[in-house]
Design goal:
The structure is a single chain. The chain has 93 residues and is α+β, with helices and mostly antiparallel strands. The chain contains 3 helices and 3 strands. 34% of the residues lie in helices and 18% in strands. Strand 1 and strand 2 form a beta hairpin.
Length: 93
């Protein structure tokens, strides 16, 4: 059974980039962030957005999800959007 959740970047430059992630392919919140990072990176590379790729790469360590643990994701509503941001509180796991 596929266990998809929708993730979206809440980011000054990348707001609105939204994709589905299969939680069966992840073991942590960080895995979900990394999957979304790769999806965005591939999209930007495919469109030749070299400056945006550099911005994404330089800010990678700041990407996080607020107030959510992986177990919470697993039992969350499948229609909920989970936001990945680069500001505010430190990431939680």
């Amino acid at each position: 059974m596929v266990n998809y959740r929708t993730f979206q970047f809440s980011h000054d430059l990348f707001w609105g980039f939204r994709r589905m992630v299969d939680l069966d392919e992840a073991e942590s919140i960080q895995d979900c962030i990394d999957i979304m990072y790769i999806k965005l990176h591939q999209f930007l590379k495919g469109e030749n957005f070299e400056l945006l790729i550099k911005k994404l790469e330089n800010g990678r360590s700041h990407l996080h999800i607020h107030d959510l643990q992986f177990g919470d994701l697993l039992i969350s509503d499948a229609n909920e959007i989970i936001y990945i941001c680069d500001h505010g509180q430190n990431k939680k796991e």
